TrEMBL record:
This is lysozyme. It catalyses: Hydrolysis of (1->4)-beta-linkages between N-acetylmuramic acid and N-acetyl-D-glucosamine residues in a peptidoglycan and between N-acetyl-D-glucosamine residues in chitodextrins. One of its GO terms (biological process) is defense response to bacterium. Keywords: Antimicrobial, Bacteriolytic enzyme, Disulfide bond, Glycosidase, Hydrolase, Signal. Residues 1-20 form the signal peptide. Its EC number is 3.2.1.17. GO terms for molecular function: lysozyme activity. Residues 81-99 form the Glycosyl hydrolases family 22 (GH22) domain.
Length: 122
């Protein structure tokens, strides 16, 4: 019985790690430059810098309600982005980028500085 419990825990922990990705700086910049994300090239350095500071380039980042690569505050924004916060902690960038861009665009239209939506960048 003990072996079964330990084996199950090991398998579950390995499955959790399968959804984790820690980006390199250049790797993230190149991914964000992909046309499918629609990130302006002039903004890529800022997005990469934010990801370094807010999550350590770790897609599984989840610290006190701050989720994913871009440190998205889940209490408000997960609902606004129409996703569950756990979607921000897997290795698929599409939800992270879409939600971060929604935050940026909303804040940019209201305050003319979209990156100020993240307190860490002001």
């Amino acid at each position: 019985m003990w072996r079964l419990a330990v084996t199950t825990l090991v398998i579950l922990s390995l499955l959790d790690v399968a959804y984790l990705k820690r980006f390199g700086i250049c790797e993230l910049a190149l991914d964000l430059a992909d046309e499918k994300y629609h990130v302006p090239l002039s903004q890529i350095p800022t997005w990469v810098c934010m990801a370094m500071y807010l999550s350590g380039l770790d897609t599984s980042h989840n610290y006190t309600g701050i989720f994913g690569l871009f440190g998205i505050p889940g209490q408000y924004w997960c609902g606004q982005c129409d996703i569950t916060c756990d979607k921000l902690t897997n290795d698929d960038l599409s939800e992270d980028v879409a939600c971060a861009q929604l935050i940026y665009n909303r804040y940019n239209s209201e305050n003319r500085s979209g990156f100020k939506a993240w307190a860490a960048t002001t």
